[in-house]
Amino acid sequence: MGWNILKSKKAVSRREAEATIEVYQPARKPVVTSTPPPAYEPPNTNFFQIPATLLNEQARAEAPPPPKVIEPVLVVGIDFGTTSTGVAYAMVTDVNAVETVITNWPGANNSNIKKIPSVVWYDADGKVIGWGKDTAFAEASAKAYKRDESERRSFEASYYKLLLENWDPTYEDFRRSIRLPPNKTALDVASDFLTEVRKVTEKELIRTFGEPRFKKLQREARYFLTVPAVWSDVAKSATRQAAVNAGFVDSMDNPKLSLIVEPEAAAIFCAKRDVYHFETNDVFLVVDCGGGTVDLIAYEVEDSTPSSFLVKEFTTGTGAVCGSVLVDTHFNDLVKAKVQYLLKMNIIDNKMAANIRRRCRKEFPNIKHNFKNDPNIDFTVETGVAASHEGLNLFDGDMTFTPEEILMAFQSSVSQVVSLVHDQIRQVQDKGKFLKAILVVGGYGSSSFLFASIQQAVPQRYRSCVLRPKDSVAAIVNGAVVTGIFQDVLKSRVARRHYCMETVEDFIPGCHRMNYMEEVNGKKKCKYTQRHLVKKGQEISIHDSITIPFFREISYNSSRIFTDKLYTCDATELPQYVVDPGMVYLTDLVTDLSAIGWDQFQKTEVNGKTLYRIYFDIVLAVDGGNEIKAEFVFNSDVRGKVNCKF
Questions:
Q1: 393-397: long-range contacts, CB 8 A cutoff, minimum separation 24
Q2: Which terminal residue of the chain has fewer beta carbons within 10 Å of its beta carbon, N or C?
Q3: By C-alpha distance, which of 549, 451, 565, 428 is closest to 503?
Q4: CATH number at 73-262
Q5: 0.85 cut: is pTM over it?
Q6: Sorting pLDDT into bands at 50, 70 and 90, what band is 13?
């Protein structure tokens, strides 16, 4: 899934500074008709149904030729999550390659686990002393630290991934509660964690293929790293940087590393692995419930033929920071309140309080997974302290939590997830379609209570098609690898936000604000104006690009390094000026034309002054809405990359 904007044809050169933007639109767009959608048919819940057409003689006669054997390519998928992480891989010679999930992790005591906690422990010097499941030494050190925080011996970093998203205001409340080790940024911790993941991955691959063969495969290996669908381009860039720092690839623009949004990975896995049998024109919704974020996107099947299976995004992806960490936070607040009361009543001391908090935190994942809101089932945690208080359900160190208390921990998260599901259903039905299936995936998606809550909250017609695919926890990491195996399964994405470029336009009285007027080379101009590049909700084909014409007029020996500002906006309508509320600065696009000689530019006289006119294009690829990359074109030739400085 490399990025090649202009490989087969060159951009057209233009000499008009005010030329319009050329946006390559997909040939086909979803058509909304006024006729009612087809009658709803209950979905087939047989996850392993074999299409009948494959069993008859005609299908065998029409079957495509056997897949062509190619040079083996190693594909590695990394599902880097807020609370847990998994890795899978496949040796790809044709589309029959099968993914393998790594289950042998340090500290797992020989138990096969598909995901490990995304935690890192540091000593006082900032050295990694534990990570994932391999944290026994670090946790023992933590128990020994004294009340004086300056004498603390170890530091745990968790939920740090959410800090890679640094400007979305919806994260702000939770961001303030996340603590990082001294002198460490979120990018540092993410890089350290992924470094350890890479080391274990390489050991597993060497054990599987042998070191000589792995070293050969490693040179052309392709990596697919998952990111939340709702993340900004800034957060995606930071995630890519963490993977580079960890040593998966050697540079930010290395095409062997691709980012894939989590619902997309799950959708491709479910579709290509026949988790659910889809027909052409079917629409299905993926609800990816992770540790930090919950992401939702509906997809439409454009072609259900096995040999050319093709899907496209049908709705604008939505999501929020309402994953399992929100449930954890509310539960921890409950435990904290109980502990503070016990301290106030002198029933326990600080060491006992720390033990209670630690034991409750350790046991809560099991409680969370098994909770079904059964009024007859309580949950008890052995805290290891010799204390009792009847009012707090603490008896000889056993602290009991009622179903009502656990329900309160879930309430905020579940209500937000249900609201997001309703919004996606509305988007689908507004386009004249009904959902064929609602697929609940991700680690948090394995929660019995969350699944039942979604099932009960959707309209009656959809309740039978709310499904949790087998091995839903590993669906995303498997999907990352399946994406690498099949490549062109996704045709197009729907832009989640507006993109625009800051411009300086000719000032038009009555149209532009007077206080934004400025004089440039004797001409009245309006600053802060914008050029709309991508509209929110616009369908963007995976290989589409946007050609933006630029014009500069400079004196001899002036700098030929030009900077243009790119902005985004999540609002429905794009404001007129880049300084208006709702506009968010995204990045500088830096174009360096220093290598182009002055004799290549147009020489002109303006008010008795010799100036040089420079015409060039920036070809902007948003990877179908996934990542932003750019090249610049001069005289119809691609002359270099445009740096995106986030």
A1: 394/338, 394/342
A2: C
A3: 565
A4: 3.30.420
A5: no
A6: very low
